[in-house]
Amino acid sequence: MTPAAVSRMISRLEEHLGIALFVRQPGGVDVTAPGRILFDAIAQGFSGIDNALREIEDHKTGLETITLSASTGFTTHWMMPRMADFKRAFPKVDLRFQLVMGELAGEVHDVDIGMRFGSGPDALHEAAYIIPEILIPISNNSYRDNHLRDGSWCQEIDKLAHLDDMRMAWSNLFVPGNVNDSMKFLDYAIVVQAALLGQGVAFGWLNVIAHWLSTGALVPARPWLIVTQRQCLFLRSRKKPLRPIVADVQDWIIAELNRDVMGVNERYPELGLKPIIEKNAKG
């Protein structure tokens, strides 16, 4: 079907309904409020069909498919080192990923659960708390040792790896130091990889780097952290029923991630993570 044919069919539908679904402009079209209502209903219908087809496939294969929306950083640097443990815990689960390269934000669509930063449930989503949003300056041991003089942090940082669209003023976070050079990447997984390879200092989201910190592959570049006003959450669409197996996988990831965080606390008590985690869990 050609675009012109689609346009004619939409025009006929609008004529039948007696209301505009789109506002036509020289640069394109904008959906109207009634158009959004119709879109949401159609999308929900297709989502239901997709869920039904997936259940049929699951019955045929004996596996239950779960789709997780998460950052490339979390998937690469936390989930992948855990996949053997995950397979042992859930041998009949086919875990699939919807990958987010940049900022971990936005609605959760067409997946079972999505990791996001936010403040809690909203009109569209149920929410399960994981940990607070915590950022720590990180590097590998070799890089940190080369940038410590007489037990104090150098006044200058040779290289800082960070996301290209990061909103924070990175150099200001390292007061009183200055950044000589920066490496900007579109994918946060590469930012963490740069720190692992000793290419510079990076700012690490704890939900992504907890595994490497707990094993010592990454170290705090200095004993300092930022706790934001946001939380790391698992979001789920209110339109999508929570299957028991999805709840089990969600709980497993939350428990394992918190286990890693406690491992980081034991290895680096100077960060003071434990009281922060306990305070936010109670809150």
Automatic annotation (TrEMBL):
The protein's matches in Gene3D superfamilies, at most eight in alphabetical order, are given as: Periplasmic binding protein-like II, Winged helix-like DNA-binding domain superfamily/Winged helix DNA-binding domain
Entry-linked Pfam families: HTH_1, LysR_substrate
Q: What SUPFAM superfamilies does this protein's entry cite?
A: Periplasmic binding protein-like II (SSF53850), Winged helix' DNA-binding domain (SSF46785)
Keywords assigned: DNA-binding, Transcription, Transcription regulation
Which superkingdom?
Bacteria
Q: Where is the HTH lysR-type domain?
A: 1-32
GO terms (molecular function) for this protein are: DNA-binding transcription factor activity; sequence-specific DNA binding
**Does this UniProt record's set of keywords contain Transferase?**
no
What is any one GO biological process for this UniProt entry?
DNA-templated transcription
Q: Which family does it belong to?
A: Belongs to the LysR transcriptional regulatory family.
Name this protein carries in UniProt: DNA-binding transcriptional LysR family regulator
Organism placement in taxonomy: Bacteria, Pseudomonadati, Pseudomonadota, Alphaproteobacteria, Hyphomicrobiales
